[in-house]
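I'm stuck. Please check this protein.
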Amino acid sequence: MIHTRWRQAGFAVALVCAALSGVPASAETVRIGAVKVAANGANFIAVDKGYFAAEGLDVQITFFDSAEPIAVAVVSGAVDFGATGPGGALYNLAGQNAVTIISGLAREAPGFPVFVFAVSNRAYQAGFKSYENMAGRTGSVTQLGAPSHYAYALLQQKYGVDPKSVRILPLQSLPNQVSAVSGGQADSGIILATVAIPAINRGDMTRLGYVGDETPFQTGILFTSTKTANEKSDLVQRFLRAFRKGAHDYRDAFIGPDGKRRDGPASTEMLGIIAKYVGQPPEQVKGGISYVDPDAALDVNDILRQLAWYKAQGMVKSDVSGDQVIDKRYVIPAGPR
């Protein structure tokens, strides 16, 4: 009888703790792999505002320093969903029917600083003051085939720079990029703004511009394992419903009806939520707010262009198809902006 009472008391305590946390006692644990950037604000908001909990999901976020390890973590089962940029590693895994894109996240667009093009002070003083000047110099990315690598290619095409004239250094993480550009070991870096802006504000390196102002593209996606997409449709749908509520809050807070950057009435609250997760002051976070489509729609045409570019560079196998990369059961295609 005593043991029974203790078990009942323990169960009651568990229920109270679950109620106080906003997560149902029977909630299903779901893990997201992400990078600490404002572009992931929709996920942070959905956790903080209880949207995931309302769908019976106890969401836990695991942070990584770059995109490629997140794709590997999704395949291994270390995390259930990935929230980061697409790249060569992800497209190759999609070609093996290991992962698939289920939603858009953030996009490069004018007025929304996702990626900043930063140059070392030494290189800037030596004349690296425009995108055309990248020829004959070194650039840096987290990994070859990362979204920032694709961004270099877009800028090179726009400004007539021979890609062979730029040596791209894969530095494995965003903090390594900041250190390399600040120290002059790399002449430039295309770095997520949330991470780069503190060093720029300190004067450790120089901002040349924002990629979105020059050449918009889909920089952020949500993806999961193909096995999860096929076998756990209800879980994926619940996850996306909650995530899209967070995306709506994010958009209402930071983007006007015309699609341009504008702070709404809830912007202070949302900045506070995002700041808590990325570990930066709200004013700093404010400088890295990304563009998010209504319902976090995906720019399907750009993803297909990215896939074609990676194939042309020999980074992705030629037989990988768009249908393997994009799961049309879940993705909402973006219309013209």
User: Anything to note?
Assistant: The chain has 16 helices and ten strands. Confidence is low (pLDDT under 50) at residues 1-21.
